[in-house]
Amino acid sequence: MRKALFFLLILCIGCRKDPAPLPGKALLLFPKNNEICADGLIVSASRTKILFKWDASKNTDSYVLSIKNLENGQISTHATDKTQLEIELDRNVAWSWFILSKNTKIGKELSSDVWKFYNPAPAQTSFSPFPADLIAPRYGEVIPLATEKVTLRWSATDPDGDIESYDVYLGNSNVPALYKTAVKVPFLADLLLDRNKTYYWKISTRDSKGNRSNSDVYLFKLD
User: Fold this and answer.
1) The model's pTM
2) What's the rounded Cα separation, in Å, for the pair 24 and 9?
3) Is the separation of the CB atoms in 30 and 52 below 8 Å?
């Protein structure tokens, strides 16, 4: 009897189907992250065609290229089954992009990293910083009551490498007021904030030539 049960168990294990393979994460190749893209095909004084490239990802039958204008927040998406796609973009604008790898047979998808680049205008020699990435608190994070102080952390890059300072905006409105100006490091530590409130924050990055960029607005809650 035990032998029969053993063979039945083996048979059941052998009949069990392997889970459907999930799509892999695409590796971005071009335009390069945090760099000036000077290799586009110039269409006019205000427009350039840029060839986006990425490595093929596993278990993927199609991709969606997502491109965001970092000045006005507008996003465009472009579906393809290739690993490169030429898109016409405005010049003198900072952009971000990522690839969504899709397995349509199982209805699953996976996002790549997000890269930023600058599409320069003719003879442009000075560039605004890329909008800062807000690191902590994470968007929508609920900070427990036991936490007495809050630290804001972010990261920022500039095509010219000349970031000078940051202005921190923080408050209970979704249009936060200026909280602290001319911060020299990418964090603001040990903030004493009120409990049971929602806070909104953003970072304005300034370089040595007076160019500025603004991050997205994040929110967090104090429990």
Assistant:
1) 0.82
2) 33
3) yes
